Amino acid sequence: MTEPQSAPHPKLDELVAVLERLRAPGGCAWDREQTHESLVQYLIEETWELVDAIETGDKDELIEELGDVLYQVVFHADIAAEAGQFTLEDVAAHMTAKMIGRHPHVFGDAVAETADDVMAVWDDLKKTEKPHRTSVLDGIPQRMPALALADKLLGRAHKVGLLDATLPGAVNVADEDELGPLLLAIVASAKANGLDSERALRSALRGLQQEIREFEIEAASDAGVIGTTD
């Protein structure tokens, strides 16, 4: 007689079961009341706590914070499952298919020997998967922290050829030990003068995004002109 095999991830299954019990009738009133929208604040908070754990390099903290983020995923999936929308298995299946599809150099016949090659393949596949995205700015979450958004937008501006992000700007900073105090000094100066650093940077980024979109339109127009004269 063949012995039944144990579940490959018993602790993950146990976590799912705990969440289901908390949200079941007779469980926890607070958990029952939560929605996707009400959980956003906790997802953001737990994500930043995970970032802190990664940056401090504390293994126990990393385990705890990864667990907190995982719990958020399980929580959202349970809310959706109760509403008859989708399940945690659907989420996992979609991500599995996505990762296999995005890595044809591993699961298929494509060749991508360097990290840059991989990113080129990734970008091409995203264009095929999301044809409704007509700008490199599409899909960028605007509520990202301003500095993270700035880094993302500069990368997109480089991609379309608006600027060369590999060249040092007006202030050339060689390492993060130098960069940190410089950024802090800028924020301190802004505060002393009653300025809002976050708002100021976001305002500049809106201008950069407008430049990118105008550059894309001009480039598309030029390409169209070239195409009709060939």
From TrEMBL:
Task: Name its species.
Answer: Salinibacterium xinjiangense
**Is Ion transport given among the entry's keywords?**
no
Q: Which GO terms describe its molecular function?
A: nucleoside triphosphate diphosphatase activity
Please indicate which superkingdom the organism of origin belongs to. Bacteria
Q: Which SUPFAM superfamilies match?
A: all-alpha NTP pyrophosphatases (SSF101386)
Q: What Gene Ontology terms for biological process does this UniProt record contain?
A: dATP catabolic process; dGTP catabolic process; dTTP catabolic process; dUTP catabolic process; response to stress; TTP catabolic process; UTP catabolic process
Q: List the CDD domains hit by this protein, alphabetically.
A: NTP-PPase_MazG_Nterm (cd11528)
Q: Which of UniProt's keywords are assigned here? A: Hydrolase
All copies of the NTP pyrophosphohydrolase MazG-like domain together span 34-107
**Full protein name:** XTP/dITP diphosphohydrolase
